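Weekly modeling sync, notes
Attendees: S.R. (lead), two postdocs, one rotation student

Agenda item 3: backlog of single-chain predictions. S.R. asked that every request posted to the team notebook include the full sequence so nobody has to chase files. The rotation student volunteered to paste the first one in as an example of the format we agreed on. Action items at the bottom.

Example entry:
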Amino acid sequence: MTTTTTTSTTIETRREQWRAWREQRTAELSRPHGWLSLTGLHWLTGGPETVADLPGTWASVDGGVELTASTADGVVLDGAPVDGTVRVDTVEGAPGVLVELGDRRVEVMQRSGLHALRVRDPQAPARAAFTGVPVFDFDERYVLDAEFVPYAQSREVVVGAVVEGLRHHHDAVGTVRFDLDGPQELVVFADGKALFTDATSGVTTTGTTRSVPVPTDPGPVVLDLNLAQNLPCAFTDHATCPLPPAENRLTVAVAAGEKDPR
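Predicted structure, as returned to the notebook:
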């Protein structure tokens, strides 16, 4: 493997940062209502309808969802029991509004103009069985000298999703260029991350997409591919993760970061 490895920060410091990242990831994924707690994703079709294992009725309306329930159903929204019909406003692509149902949370969300209910349960089998994400050992060869090249203006990039028919809209702010068995380039989004696949995808890493943080200061930067991490869809079938832009489908292997957890 031919790489250009940084010397601006000691490798041992990078290794310590990687260990701290691993601990943070484990804690984040272990949260009671985190991604490992998902047990269902239900798409609403229009008028009031019942949903398996959920009380009340749910209706997709313009800009949100109407929930009808009685006090006996034990549904809580914004700290108050629901008794009658309430409206839950949604924002396209944003994290959903959480409706409480005992220990469970029902996330009311909107994707590509469609409304859905995503159930989060602390007793989910995936959360109970979780012992950590499998990961490649830290490899200094994947700590790379790179260059971030900003766009003069941000550009909208529309990508597909793991759920057929959905689309995700992102603002791209530039590209990061680096050498890994030859010159490579990734489109970087406004959140400072690049979504990508590579030659390990579907083999030792998830077949959908991984994400890596990219410094967005113009000019020389350090790209640490050891920090490549899975999106939620690697852990659950109830996520709606974006796929990477076509430009970010690398043909080289990135045997660094998180592996396929399933």
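Discussion: group reviewed the output briefly. Residues 11-30+131-248 form one domain.
Action items: rotation student to repeat for the remaining queue; S.R. to check formatting next week.
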